[in-house]
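A.,

Following up on our hallway conversation. Structure tokens first:
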């Protein structure tokens, strides 16, 4: 029996193992893994790694915000993902004022289908305190298995109070929905902001650094601790997004060891960047929320991932350009939060394994493919197993790259914090459903070819 495509002589990493094998694909699925396989088309992966396509469960593409739309939209963003070896993204539906969750889902679905070149799922955001239980309970039927809440952003009207968090976690226990939470203590942040603002010279003195002065680590981990407590009390399914402090990560790990269902996500920026960035005159370009941390905190975060305290990596991609970022006008209250990154998930997370030794190569694949597939309810993804979708990446561990906007970084943003970084190891071929969608820095995909992924619920 012949195969459509065979990836030959690579070193495969999947399922906690590293092994030499050919990977054969037929009808968009992985059809065989073994020695000396041949097909109509063959790709050599000699001296290269063959891994399941990465899954970035945390992206904001074409997000509409007052500062304008993010510069990476569904087309440019998924093109960047494809070039970076990401074959699945999960984005967020964010309802406008008064819009029903179902209408918001449909809007996001329409923005993605017909435009995304890779498979996509959708998380549903619930903003503020007006919770419509019936609409939330209707989400699983649409293929949405997760609800996102914010414990902060009271000023935008997005903050969910403790009562709402409790209510949603209770619904989550009954339905199997997972509740994803942006954990920051809004009260404490406002208090610290008032302190900063009481100095009339704060703009000149601190500039963008005021962002981190008003958001020290405790503003995150206090909220993480509270969310974990509510998850324990309700029996709900919790997911902490973009953990930026080691204490958050260690609390999530300890809670799960006590039988509480909580997952901890983090992002490469919290291991590789630090708050020195905000001291630069152009520091506002790199503002994210939560902020990147002081180098001592970053070091403990590195220790936390070494200790196994991070379940999966996403990027929280939310890309703006300089012109949009400049609209802050020197006022840290008005900064546009967000960084590009979906295109760099694989090479940065590989760098954290191979060069920085935070984790093994086997765990690298777990963090960016296998665990995201399990946690986000995508059984057809995340491993090189017969019968799974043929989403496969050939990764060249020897390829040397110095990151440069407009050259090898595929984001449309002109202000990446990774500009100039030197990396060894780069994705050289991305395959989605058996089709080559990127090869040697060339995009070969088709916008609209990505399928919407209905995701499984947590088992109750
Ligand atoms: Zn986000």
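Then the amino acids I'd put at each of the 460 positions:
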């Amino acid at each position: 029996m012949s195969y459509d495509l065979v990836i030959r002589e690579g070193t495969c990493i999947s399922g906690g193992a590293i092994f030499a094998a050919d990977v054969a694909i037929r009808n968009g699925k992985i059809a065989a893994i073994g020695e000396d396989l041949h097909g109509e088309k063959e790709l050599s992966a000699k001296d290269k790694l063959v891994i399941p396509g990465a899954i970035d469960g945390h992206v904001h593409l074409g997000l509409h915000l007052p500062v304008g739309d993010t510069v990476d939209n569904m087309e440019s963003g998924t093109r960047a993902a494809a070039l970076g070896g990401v074959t699945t993204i999960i984005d967020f539906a964010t309802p406008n004022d008064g819009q029903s969750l179902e209408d918001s889902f449909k809007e996001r679905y329409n923005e993605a289908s017909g435009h995304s070149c890779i498979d996509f799922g959708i998380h549903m955001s619930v903003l503020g305190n007006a919770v419509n239980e019936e609409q939330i309970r209707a989400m699983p039927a649409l293929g949405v298995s997760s609800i996102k809440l914010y414990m902060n952003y009271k000023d935008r009207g997005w903050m969910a109070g403790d009562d709402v968090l409790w209510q949603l976690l209770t619904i989550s226990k009954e339905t199997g929905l997972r509740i994803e939470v942006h954990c920051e203590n809004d009260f404490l942040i406002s208090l610290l902001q008032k302190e900063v603002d009481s100095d009339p010279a704060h703009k000149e003195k601190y500039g963008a650094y005021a962002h981190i002065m008003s958001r020290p680590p405790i503003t995150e981990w206090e909220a993480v601790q509270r969310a974990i407590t509510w998850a324990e009390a309700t029996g709900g399914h919790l997911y902490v997004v973009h953990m930026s402090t080691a204490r958050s990560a260690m609390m999530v790990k300890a809670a799960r060891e006590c039988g509480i269902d909580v997952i901890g996500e983090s992002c490469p920026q919290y291991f590789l960047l630090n708050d020195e960035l905000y001291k630069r005159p152009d520091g506002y370009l790199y503002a994210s929320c939560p902020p990147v941390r002081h180098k001592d905190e970053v070091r403990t975060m590195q220790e936390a991932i070494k200790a196994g305290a991070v379940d999966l990596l996403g990027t929280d991609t939310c890309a703006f350009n300089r012109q949009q970022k400049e609209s802050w006008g020197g006022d840290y209250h008005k900064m546009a939060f967000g960084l590009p990154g979906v295109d760099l998930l694989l090479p940065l997370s590989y760098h954290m394994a191979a060069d920085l030794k935070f984790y093994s190569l086997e765990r690298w694949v777990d963090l960016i493919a296998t665990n995201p597939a399990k946690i986000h309810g995508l059984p057809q993804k995340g491993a090189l197993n017969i019968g799974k979708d043929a989403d496969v990446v050939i990764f060249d561990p020897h390829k040397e790259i110095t990151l440069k906007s407009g050259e090898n970084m595929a984001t449309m943003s002109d202000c990446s914090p990774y500009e100039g970084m030197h990396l060894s190891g780069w994705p050289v071929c991305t395959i989605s459903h058996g089709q080559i969608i990127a090869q040697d820095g060339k995009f070969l995909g088709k916008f609209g070819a990505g399928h919407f992924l209905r995701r499984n619920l947590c088992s109750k």
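Residues 58, 60, 316 surround zinc ion (CB under 6 Å). Curious whether your intuition agrees with the design.

B.
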